[in-house]
Design a protein that fits this description.
- This protein has 355 residues and is of the alpha+beta class.
- The protein has two domains: 122 residues, Creatine Amidinohydrolase, Chain A, domain 1 (3-Layer(aba) Sandwich), CATH 3.40.350; 226 residues, Alpha-Beta Complex (Creatine Amidinohydrolase), CATH 3.90.230.10.
- It contains ten helices and 19 strands.
- The strands form six sheets. A six-stranded mixed β-sheet has the order 4-3-2-1-5-6. The protein has a three-stranded antiparallel β-sheet with strand order 7-10-11.
């Protein structure tokens, strides 16, 4: 892993890592104070006295564990001098202004350069253990959905269902939610990232549920849209269009496919129904230690997808003040296509529920 990281040392000769997820990815450390310095010759892991013993047990041997203490202001400049670090890459999205100023103050003679998303790019390609955890995460997610469908009754509020989801996630083996569950009844389903309210479920409402869990730090993500009565002709048309769009995208997913080609195929059925203006968000996103990570399936991106990337595919159509439909699955990209990690039913006949 360190060898792979060092290949990105082009504009700088060392990398400072402060993003807690990247620290965990490289070392398995989960405490609140963990920092990494990777030079061309050696790697260091820094923590304070609270986590020192824990870090010494868990951090891989290729990192030298160093305690941050009162000598930090003396030890840090010595390291920079020892390894002749004149240009230091740092994670610009995860270093606060105060941290930057403090570090810069004790790094005389060293320039700080934005490193971009080096570790995030490496994290795009999932390793075997990561895929196993993501499979399990999604399996728990689907078990929760089964419980939720039994809980949905007329009179339940969006907030009540959200709380039920959170409790069920813990009971079924998740360590946390990967994001705040979205529960949208009726016209609220037309708001892509609706904030849950005390709106009560009524027969005839569209029900949109977007949720995910964390299992051993890895995030799942799934959206399903349900109808609580026989859908109208318009509702059925929109639903089938979204489903067709999702399948068109899934059929295009494979190693070396461009994001642009996947998006283009997904948009065909939506454009044919003249519904494109009602779909404004990205087609999908990577998921792993973060619920949103690379790859990003934004519109018109020339970026190429690679084997063992994991991405969601989540087209949606949202008719303001009326109803919305989103269908979201998680998929592993292979050389010949894509393997769907999501098994929850989504055919129109399967998503009409009794409440």
């Amino acid at each position: 892993m360190l060898k792979q990281i060092r290949k990105h040392f082009k504009n700088f000769n060392a990398l400072f890592i402060s993003d807690p997820l990247n620290v965990y990815y490289l070392t398995g450390f989960t405490g609140s104070r963990g920092l990494i310095l990777i030079t061309k010759r050696k790697a260091y892991f820094f923590t304070d006295f609270r986590y020192l013993e824990y870090a010494q047990k868990i951090v891989p041997e290729e990192f030298e564990v160093v305690q941050i203490d009162k000598k930090w202001k003396e030890d840090w400049p010595k390291l920079l001098k020892k390894y002749r670090i004149k240009k230091l890459g740092y994670e610009e999205d995860f270093l606060t202004v105060n941290q930057y100023d403090g570090l810069n103050k004790i790094s005389k003679g060293t320039r700080f350069l934005k490193s971009g998303n080096i570790i995030e790019q490496i994290r795009e390609i999932k390793q075997g253990y990561e895929i196993a955890r993501l499979r399990k995460s999604q399996k728990i997610n689907e078990q929760v959905l089964d419980e939720v469908l039994n809980f949905l009754k007329e009179g339940r509020t969006e907030a009540e269902v959200e709380w039920f989801i959170i409790k069920a996630q813990r009971e079924l083996g998740a360590e946390d939610s990967s994001f705040d569950p979205i529960v949208a009844f009726g016209s609220n389903s037309a708001i892509p990232h609706h904030q849950n309210t005390n709106r009560k479920l009524k027969k005839g409402h569209t029900v949109l549920i977007d949720m995910g869990v964390k299992y051993k730090h890895y995030c799942s993500d799934m959206t399903r849209t349900f109808f609580t009565a026989k859908p109208t002709t318009r509702q059925a048309e929109v639903y089938e269009t979204v489903l067709e769009s999702q399948q068109a995208a899934i059929d295009t997913l494979r190693h070396n496919a461009t994001v642009a080609s996947v998006v283009k195929n997904a948009m065909k059925p939506i454009k044919e129904k003249e519904l494109a203006k009602y779909f404004q968000h990205a087609l999908g996103h990577g998921t792993g230690l973060n619920i949103h990570e690379l790859p990003n399936l934004g519109i018109e991106k020339p970026y190429k997808l690679k084997e063992n990337m994991i991405t969601t595919i989540e087209p949606g159509i949202y008719l303001p003040k009326n109803f919305g439909v989103r269908i979201e699955d998680m998929l592993i990209i292979s050389r010949t296509g894509a393997k769907n990690l999501t098994n929850a039913p989504k055919q129109l006949k399967d998503i009409i529920i009794k409440v």
